[in-house]
From TrEMBL, chains A, B:
CDD domains per record: CAP_ED, HTH_CRP
Top-level taxonomic group: Bacteria
Keywords for this protein: DNA-binding, Transcription, Transcription regulation
A cellular-component GO term for this protein: cytosol
Protein name: Crp/Fnr family transcriptional regulator
Taxonomic placement: Bacteria, Pseudomonadati, Pseudomonadota, Alphaproteobacteria, Rhodobacterales
Domain HTH crp-type: 156-234
Molecular function as annotated in GO: DNA binding; DNA-binding transcription factor activity
Organism of provenance: Rhabdonatronobacter sediminivivens
Pfam families given in the database record: cNMP_binding, HTH_Crp_2
Amino acid sequence: MNRTVSIPKTGPQSCGDCPIRHRAVCARCDDEELVQLEEIKFYRSYQAGQVIAWSADRMDFVASVVTGIATLTQTMEDGRRQMVGLLLPSDFVGRPGRETAPYDVTATTDVVMCCFRKKPFEEMMLRTPHIGQRLLEMTLDELDAAREWMLLLGRKTAREKIASLLAILARRDASLQLREPEGVISFELPLTREAMSEYLGLTLETVSRQISALRKDGIIEIRGKRQITVPDFDRLLEETGDDTDGGFLV
Amino acid sequence: MNRTVSIPKTGPQSCGDCPIRHRAVCARCDDEELVQLEEIKFYRSYQAGQVIAWSADRMDFVASVVTGIATLTQTMEDGRRQMVGLLLPSDFVGRPGRETAPYDVTATTDVVMCCFRKKPFEEMMLRTPHIGQRLLEMTLDELDAAREWMLLLGRKTAREKIASLLAILARRDASLQLREPEGVISFELPLTREAMSEYLGLTLETVSRQISALRKDGIIEIRGKRQITVPDFDRLLEETGDDTDGGFLV
DNA sequence: CGACTCTTTGAGTACGCTCAAGGGGTGTGG
DNA sequence: CCACACCCCTTGAGCGTACTCAAAGAGTCG
C-alpha cells in the first residue's frame, strides 16, 4: 500500500477527448472556459491500494476522477472504519475553500485524476458561474446518495445491504454500457470484501457469508472472486428491501 | 398528527429583523437582492408533529427553517424508518430543479418556515450568484454532516450513538447562546425517544435503556422526560467514541 | 515452491431487537 | 374532583443477527 511507483499518466490529450467531459464539474463550461481550465489542470495517476490523501493532510488541489474508483473513509481512534463516499469517474474530490482533507482518500483500483490547483480554481469559480452551478448540482446528488446510504446503514439487514451494493454496482456498470439494468447482468466487483464491509457497516466475514448465501439461493453466480453474474436483476432488487418501482439515486 | 389548525404566523417583519439573516441561504445577499427575495417569499407555520411534505408530494416552494426543528425521514415498504436529515434554524429545505420531495418532511417542534415560490426562486438563482454560492456552501456542510452521521450509523455502539446525539444537541444549544460547550450544560431534548431511535438507527427501547444507563453512570441527569443536564461535557465526549480533540462538523 | 493476500467457513458470543407489561404525566369527561 | 384514556417512557425476559476468534482454502507473484 502507498507504494510510490510511477505509472503512465494516461489522461486524455485535451478536454475535448475526455471521457467525463459531459458529467464532470466542467460539464457546462464552454470552449473559452475549457481553455482557462486547461491552464491550471494536470493529471495524476494512482495505483490500486495507494492513498491519495490522508485525513487532515493539506490538499493543494481539487480533482475529478477520470477513470477508476476511489473511496472516502473515516477512521475512529480504535481503528473502526466507515466508508463515507464512493468516487466514480466524473466525481469530484475536494472542497473549494478548505485547506485539509477531512477523510482518507484511497484508490481502490488504478485511478487517473484530473487535478486543478486549488487557488486558481477557486478564483475561476468566482468568475465562472457554470462551474459553481455544476458543482452545486453534483453536491446535491451526492447528498441524496449519502441519504440513501444512511437508510442502508441504519435499517437494512446484512443480506439487504449486500444486495443493495450489488444492485448499485450492476446499475453503474449497465449505465457505462448505456443500457438498462435488466435480465442477465455481468460485471466485476471493484472492491475487496474488506472494502465492501467498510462500505456497508459490516465485518468482512459477514460480507463473505452473505455473498455465499446469495449464491446458494441462486440470486448471483460467481466466477473466480470478483466476476459476478446476476441471472435475474429483478430478483436481486427484491432482496434489497427497496421499493421495487422507486427510482434509485446513484 | 397533521392537524391543519392554523396558528399565528410569527415570521419576522422584514429580512432585516430575521434571526437567520446571517446564516440562511440569503446570507450573502445585498439589500437590493433582499428586496427581490421579499417579493417571492411568504411565511408558513407548522405545529409540532405536523407533516410539512410527504415523500413524492409535489413541492411548489423551497424554504428556510426560521425557528423550530424539522426532520427528513425515509420509509421502507415494511415500515422501517430512518431519519436522514435534522433541520435547524437557517437550514434549507427543497432542491431547486426538483419537482417532488424525496423524503417525508416533518415538524418535530412548532416550526416557522420562510418559503420562496420555487419557479421565481430558480430564476433568481440564475441572475444572482450570491444565492447559488451560499447554497453550495450550505450543501457541502450538510454533506459533511451526513458523512459524520454515516460513521455513527455504521460503526458506533448504541451507547456511543446516544452520547453523540446528546453532544450534538448540547453543542447546538450552546452555540445558540453564543458560548463554548464545556463544564455543566443543560438543555431540553427536542426529540421523542422514537424520533431519536429513527435518527440513530435503533429501537426506541434501546434508546430508553441507554439513556437510563448514562444516567446511572452519572454522565447525564434528567429532570422530567426531556430536560437534560450534563455535569461534565468532557465525560460525555469520551462516551461518543470520537476523537476528543478533533472538531465536529454539525 | 513458498510467501502473501484475499476469501471462506465454523463455533461460540454478545449486542441490540422483539414481545410484553407496567409506570407517570396530562387532558378530558362524568 | 376523580376516573379514565392516551401518550410517552421504562424495564424485563428471551431471542436472533451479526460479531469475534480461529483455521484453512484459493489465487497470485517472485
